[in-house]
Amino acid sequence: MNSAERRGFVIIAVLVAGISGLWVATSLLFLAQSDVRSAEVTMSRTQHRSLGLSGLRLLGDVLVDQRDRLLLGQIPIVESQYSLWDDGAREAVVRLLPFGPGGERIIAEAGRLDVNHATLEQLSRLATLEPGQAQAIMDARDRLPGQRFHSLHDLLAIEGIDTYDLFGELSEEDSMDQALGREEDLAERVSQRLALSGARGLIDVLTVYGFEPNLQSNGRRRIDLNVPWSDELARRVTERFGEGAANALEGVFQQTTFDDDAKIVQVLREFKVPTRDWIEPLDALTTRSRVHVAGRVDLNTASVDVLETLPGIDRSRADRLVAERESLDREERGSIVWPLLRDVLPVDDFEGIADLVTVRSWTWRVRIAAGTVEADDPDGPIQDAVVYEAVIDLADPQPRLGYLREITMLQTASRLAAALEIEKEIQASPVGSTGLDSEGGDLGTEGIPDPEIATLDDLEADFLLDDDPLSLEDDLEELGDEPMASEDLEGSPAEASNRIGRWLP
């Protein structure tokens, strides 16, 4: 090889080496940029998760400040959005998303039928359950430890119940659209609400969080009559109703055993007490010894579908209950007696539901989207929104989380599952099928990828205002040992230890 060829070879080698080095440097630069972007996304997501938890704490404080309203049977008042901070350019917000069947932003869990305490007859009367499904739910519940479901998602393990039964039409899930400010105009929303015909699925009529603390409207513990007569019982009755009432009740105890709240109604009827004078006795007295009473349906918030599951209440009576409660006065709304005062139910039928109903809900479900918005457009899209669904427990003066789940990817997963199911149905149908059912509706959906669930490590929920933040799991474990409402609230440690978190087995 002559010198010219050697120089040419050297030049080519140098060029190759230079290009290779440039390619390596560029790759490293792209990797570095990718790492930076990934770190930025991770940091943003972590920050917005923290905003979400801060928003839930703020919302819990807003709700618990209204416990006096709850004791009077009223619904808490919330804003559609809360601001956490504003630096002039960006504003951190927590937006309450409308997700109830009528567009509600906050939903009373006691307004639904508690699947852990419902009877077969009640489940069978749900319009959203097909024949055989009610019995399947009862059979599955009987096989579970403690005979209770921990989540409504557990129903999907029952043969014959699919995601459409539980959630309704998956493609209608729009939580992320709302987080991005893509709501329909007012006329469209009103039109959609008027067109609603009952619940979308079991998720709208069932719950596993139906309970209330056994309290009077003044916040004190109710007086338990399901005990032997004693000086202490006489003292409490005298303190609440006077010595004459205590003496009369002592005579009743010699002939009657108070084993359920319907017995209280029977005694009031036997003594011919006017129905308006039933308000105080049914507020103050109980036949339940537990600190919490589980499974009662809230007359002030339950839908027609749920009210219809109660004994003696048919569709027409359920419709009238919903209509009448819009005009209840303060005294009526705070008492389960109001269906009698409004002549919606006869006394015999009221007696049949006295042990099954309440006018208060102490657990409220919300969906929130957390993140930042442009300061000059607070109702606009939330950047990198994180979406949570939570149940906030207000039984204590300190709010607690009963349920927490991140559902940021729920809309994407729901619509993808719906599309895949339609495609599967089309492929399985005869050639020429349109992909519609015989009535021209969309094909049903089954099988949704489980939405992204926040892990306990990811969501160290310092929802309790303690010195040390607690994980959600720790939070729920602690609930069993906490006093329930006030210094007057009574309950033995043995009773508390029988609870599963906040909830009764």
Quick structural overview:
With 505 residues, the protein is of the alpha/beta class.
Quickly list its features:
505 residues, alpha/beta, elongated, disordered C terminus, six-stranded antiparallel beta sheet, 13% strand
Can you put this structure into words, describing what you see?
By secondary structure, the chain is of the alpha/beta class. 40% of the residues lie in helices and 13% in strands. Helix 8 (231-241) crosses helix 9. The chain is built from 19 helices and 14 strands. The protein has a domain at 62-212 and 296-310 and 360-460.
Write the layout of secondary structure elements.
Layout: H1 3-64, H2 67-71, E1 81-86, E2 90-96, E3 106-108, E4 113-114, H3 120-124, H4 133-143, H5 163-167, H6 175-179, H7 186-195, E5 206-207, E6 211-213, E7 223-224, H8 231-241, H9 243-253, H10 261-270, H11 279-284, E8 285-286, E9 292-294, E10 297-298, H12 304-307, H13 315-324, H14 330-333, H15 338-341, H16 347-353, E11 357-358, E12 363-374, E13 383-393, E14 400-406, H17 410-428, H18 472-478, H19 493-497
Parallel strand pairs: 4-5, 7-8, 10-11
Antiparallel strand pairs: 1-2, 2-12, 3-12, 6-9, 12-13, 13-14
Helix pairs in contact: 8-9
